[in-house]
Amino acid sequence: MVKRLDVTEKALEVIKMLKEKHGDLMFYQAGGCCEGTQPQCFEKGGFYVRTNDAMIGLVDGFEFWIDRDLFEYWKFSHFTLDVTEGFGPGGFSLETPLGKTFKIIYRLFTEEELKDLEPVKRME
């Protein structure tokens, strides 16, 4: 099966620091105004996933959720979680005090990949 989500080594380094400080984590990518489409990292349970939101994979064992409407727009795309220097537009994510911002690098799946995608878990 083709994974919908990958993570860069640079992002894994930041996740390791966050895990040491905060314990179990979760990721959520919304399509709202304040945070734009910037992925946010929270302590596990620190954000309430909505009905029909999509969990597209795990990042270092932690769930990565996407807003249901945003997923419909990006469902034919592969996500790679990365990190960059600086503060994102929202500032609510756990990496913000480190002067970092998680970001997503997108690419479209190939026709072959689309035939064998990992299933998506939906919040009920």
TrEMBL record:
Superkingdom assignment: Bacteria
Name by which UniProt lists this protein: DUF779 domain-containing protein
Provenance organism: Cloacibacterium normanense
